[in-house]
Structure formats: structure tokens, C-alpha cells
Amino acid sequence: MGKKVIAIGNRLMMDDAVAIYIVEKIKNVLGDKGIETIIGETDVEFCFSKLNEEDMFFIIDATYYGNSPGTVTFKSLDDLKNIKVQSSSIHSLGVMELVNMYKMNIKGHFIGIEIANIDINVGLSYVLQAQVDYISNKILSFII
After folding, report:
1. Which of 3, 65, 74, 105 is 20 to 30 Å apart from 19, CA to CA?
2. What are the phi and psi torsion angles at 123 (to 5°)?
């Protein structure tokens, strides 16, 4: 059983891409530990095609739960199966809907990173830029 990290987000929508920026920052450390990284962006079908029932997955995406920007939330993928989650991650819901539809028994965790701003712009908001190291270290500690 291997470990795989999937980053979801849209690089053209500011903080929506926070997972991509974080995974790109930590991918060498993950790779050194034998953990595969996948930059899925907004391609739900591509992300779904990478899932299987043997590996452990960490699906990382931007969230809006109403917490302070930069807050990292960890949830078991089992907790997200067969429920309709409101105000969480738009992209991961699409992936989880496919998982539920095909009755896949995937193992792992959803890691949400609370956004500060979604707007048409490349790059993270100043609020999240200031927290990239903190967020990266928190996620690395959880995955490794």
C-alpha cells in the first residue's frame, strides 16, 4: 500500500489554489518518503482516475468552513462518504460523489485549508502567503 497526495484547486482564483501551492512546496520531501504527489487542479475525472482501494490518499483542497484563514482541517475520507457536505470544498465533493457513485472503498483523509479570498487573480492572498510555511509543516507532519 502506497501513499498518494492529490492537490485540487484553480490557479486563476487566488486562494482556491492553496493546495496546489502547498503540495508543490512539499513534494520533494514527500517524494523522498516514497509518497506520490498528484496535481489534479480542477480536473475531477483525472483525480478520480488516480484513486484505488489499495493506496492511502490525502486529498487536499481549499475550504470555506468559516474558520480563520489558514486553518487546516483533517477529516477521514470515511466521514465524507455518503453525506452531502455544505460549504466545504467544491472540487473534492465532485471526487467524493464519484467515489460514492461507484461505491469505492478508498482509504485516507481530506485535508482542507481555509481560504481568505477567492477572486480572479494568480497567486495567493497576502493572508495565506504569510502562512505557507506553517500550513506546509502542519500538513507534512500529518501525512508523514
Report:
1. 105
2. 105, 160
- pLDDT tens-digit map of 62-101: 999 999 999 999 999 988 775 554 444 544 557 777 888 8
Give the max Cα distance, the chain.
40
In angstroms, the CA 54 to CA 65 distance is: 30
Calculate helix-pair angle for 18-32, 132-143, nearest 10 degrees. 50
Dist CA 29 CA 51 (whole Å)? 22
Stretch 94-112: mean pLDDT: 86
138 pLDDT tier (thresholds 50, 70, 90): very high
CB 62 within 8 A of CB 89: yes
Q: Which helix (H) or strand (E) covers residue 21, if one does?
A: helix 18-32
State the distance between the two ends of the chain, measured CA to CA, in whole angstroms: 14
Whole-number pLDDT of residue 84 = 56
27-32's contacts with Cβ under 8 Å and 24+ in sequence apart are 29/140, 29/144, 30/5, 30/140, 30/143, 30/144
Smallest CA-to-CA distance from 85 within 103, 105, 108, 112 is with: 112
